[in-house]
Design goal:
By secondary structure, the protein is α/β, with parallel strands linked by helices. The protein has 3 domains: about 25-405, Glycosidases (TIM Barrel), CATH 3.20.20.80; about 410-610, Rossmann fold (3-Layer(aba) Sandwich), CATH 3.40.50; about 620-685, Immunoglobulin-like (Sandwich), CATH 2.60.40. The strands form 6 sheets. A 9-stranded parallel β-sheet has the order 5-4-3-2-1-9-8-7-6. It is globular. The model is unreliable at about 1-5 (pLDDT under 50).
Length: about 675
């Protein structure tokens, strides 16, 4: 795999000679869906809205290359010139996201295959195998043509590789994938003996005597080998990453001065791509996010934006897609309420986004996404949506001083790990009800409820600078990670671990001797057997909380362990449920059941106090205001987001001595003391 990183962090190339700070604002732009007479009107409205960058040509392969041997760049030349003349920069896509009909007709062998052997046919998008050499050769030919033609165009600000890699084709079980999987395994294990050991192939007579015998985990008679499943997930993420790198290398060879990115999808249950491992392959991180309805919708938005910042090492990143209002792919697609368009956008900015962009500029009149909202809706510019769009443009212009600042790390962090996400939800486990990301989100909700800032960071990140770490369902704990966590605690840090953590190593082999395996000694407890609960069952704890999903027969093995709560009924009645051990200047706590977002604040509060952490918000704002802080050499920027539909009195907030820089509503004289419903206030304070 090609993994040569960018020589240094690089950002969008704004027009030459203009070095004034700015936040980017724009959308996916699909002019090929509209007649030419609309294009000039688009540019005029973009300028009215404050748009200064668009992503272009994302799904244009069939228009750019109508047949194998013909090209049509005339329309794109015209659009590039119109945008440049209008002062709008272009994040130009490589257009490889969806192959054209002529390519799949000539080469149906590029089409993905499901685990049950079904072919995914053309008619939607992303109908290509990440490991297909035929697809790769045609895609790179297109990238070469685009780079050579537009690499020096003054409108070009960045390259956008493909689009949402893996959204629909992350897992391919074709013969191409099988061959590439074997090569990936050879590189990982070197020898068949090492692979047989890692996969535990003595079980069920699975011992391999030749590499050619190995297949992807296709439909099998029973549960496929769990380590084979885990490795196939790792391989599938790496196969997409390899394609990203292949396109990037062409772009860097021809246009070394132009930064390269691709849009991640850190949101909801999109889990097939280990984005923490992809971050080094792009010049700057980009992300797409769409709000998922439910009681934790706004928590999830903040959690995802926070995690993107963690993946980007707190450097600025690009929000490449979100929605102005309703999407089109949920069971019921709710329009956003007044204020939500700006609130959602500025919450991303608070967590580090230096570009706010939507899907898409003009709402489609045809196609599968015609009911997905846009900056210019079906109703046209004379609409509430477009008025909200232009108001946000003015707010982002006022926030220009924030551009280039980094997100200030919190003192607490939630550790997020893709291996644990994948492995903890495998089949043939103690329960099929466990949801890794939900447990992490619940802990984040608890921090929000207490008004305490917390980062969300990948497990591979440097964890040493934090005072408190929460590691929800950190199921996969190799020896190196166990040592880092032990060193963290012994160095004075405070660790909070949960059920089903520390259980297996990197090969999905159980750490023997009792649970929680690799963390057993650090936590000072031992569990002999898991006791998961049926879906409708619960148990009571003697601190008044109710546990669901999971329980354990916890035995305290170290005299320094304190029992913070015990089980008061059920099979574990009288046993410890939540423990806390002092380790020199640090502590290690364990929560053996699922408590959910509503109850976790009660458990988290004393653990924060033990770590010396408190909220930066006044009491009346805790749980109601989301605080994010960015900083540069001269100032810090407080983003205060009202999570409610009621006004909030901010009197007593120490940060109110700062200068109101912008707000998502018309500011009055006392705006700095009151946060409007669903409003966002940004304060600039000297460092």
């Amino acid at each position: 795999m090609t993994t040569s990183p960018s020589p240094a962090p690089r950002w969008i190339r704004w027009p030459e000679g203009d070095r004034s700070p700015r936040l980017g604002y724009g959308a996916d732009y699909n002019p090929e869906q509209w007649p030419r007479e609309v294009w000039a009107e688009d540019v005029r409205l973009m300028r009215e809205a404050g748009v200064n960058i668009v992503s272009l040509a994302i799904f244009s392969w069939a228009r750019l290359q109508p047949t194998k041997d013909t090209w049509d760049f005339g329309w794109l030349d015209e659009v590039m010139e119109l945008l440049h003349e209008g002062g709008i920069a272009v994040d130009l896509a490589t257009a490889t996201a969806s192959p054209p009909p002529w390519l799949t007709a000539l080469h149906p062998e590029i089409l993905p295959v499901t685990r049950t052997g079904e072919t995914l046919w053309p008619g939607a998008r992303q109908h290509w195998r990440p490991t297909s050499p035929v697809f790769r050769s045609h895609a790179l030919r297109l990238v070469e043509e685009l780079a050579a033609r537009y690499g020096r165009h003054p409108a070009l600000a960045a390259w956008h590789v493909s689009n949402e890699l893996g959204c629909h084709n992350v897992y391919d079980y074709s013969d191409d994938a099988a061959g590439a999987f074997r090569l990936w395994l050879r590189d990982r294990y070197q020898t068949l003996d090492a692979l047989n050991h890692a996969w535990g192939t003595s079980f069920w007579s699975q011992h391999y005597s030749a590499w050619e015998q190995i297949l992807p985990p296709r439909l099998a008679a029973s549960h496929p080998n769990p380590t084979q499943q885990l490795d196939f997930k790792r391989f599938s993420s790496d196969a997409l990453r390899d394609h990203l790198c292949a396109e990037r290398e062409v772009l860097r060879r021809i246009t070394p001065e132009v930064p390269v990115t691709t849009n991640f999808m850190v949101m909801g249950e999109t889990k097939g791509m280990d984005y923490a491992s992809w971050a080094e392959d792009v010049d700057f991180v980009s992300n797409d996010h769409y709000v998922h309805p439910g009681p934790q919708a706004l928590d999830e938005l903040s959690f995802s934006a926070n995690l993107v910042s963690g993946i980007a090492a707190h450097r600025p990143w690009y929000l490449m897609e979100h929605s102005t209002s309703a999407v089109n792919w949920q069971p019921v697609n709710r329009a956003k309420l007044p204020g939500e368009l700006a609130r959602d956008s500025l919450l991303h900015v608070g967590h580090g986004a230096d570009v706010v962009a939507f899907f898409q500029w003009r709402q489609s009149a045809a196609g599968a996404e015609k009911y997905h909202s846009a900056m210019v809706p079906h109703a046209g510019a004379d609409s509430e949506v477009f008025r909200a769009v232009t108001a946000l443009g003015r707010t982002l212009a006022a926030l220009a001083p924030v551009a280039g600042s980094t997100r200030r790390p919190a003192r607490a962090a939630i550790v997020f790990d893709w291996d644990s996400w994948w492995a903890s939800e495998h089949d043939s486990h103690p329960t099929e009800l466990l949801r890794y990301r939900q447990e992490a989100l619940d802990w984040y909700s608890a921090f929000l409820a207490l008004g305490v800032r917390a980062d969300v960071v990948p497990a591979r990140a440097d964890l040493s600078g934090y005072d408190l770490l929460v590691t929800p369902v950190l199921h996969v704990v190799p020896a190196e990670l166990a040592k880092r966590l032990t060193d963290f605690v012994e160095g004075g840090g405070h660790l909070v671990a949960t059920y089903f953590s520390g259980i297996v190593d990197e090969n999905d082999h159980v750490h023997l001797g009792g649970y929680p395996g690799a963390l057993r000694s650090l936590l000072g407890i031992r569990v002999e057997e898991f006791a998961p609960l049926p879906e409708d069952a619960s148990v009571r704890l003697d601190n008044g909380c109710t546990g669901t999903l999971w329980t354990e027969a916890v035995t305290v093995t170290d005299p320094s362990v304190l029992i913070l709560a015990g089980y008061s009924d059920g099979p574990q009645a009288g046993r410890a449920a939540i423990t806390h051990r002092r380790v020199g200047p640090g502590t290690a706590a364990y929560v053996s059941t699922r408590l959910g977002a509503a109850q976790l604040p009660e458990v988290l509060a004393p653990l924060l106090a033990a770590a010396g952490l408190d909220s930066e918000l006044p009491a009346q704002a805790r749980g109601r205001v989301d605080l994010a802080v960015r900083e540069d050499d001269g100032a810090e920027y407080w983003f205060l987001t009202n999570r409610t539909a009621e006004p909030i009195d901010l009197s007593g907030l120490s940060g109110l001595d700062g200068e109101p820089l912008a707000a998502s509503w018309p500011m009055e004289d006392d705006a700095a003391a009151h946060l409007a419903p669903r409003g966002v206030l940004v304060l600039r304070r000297p460092k």
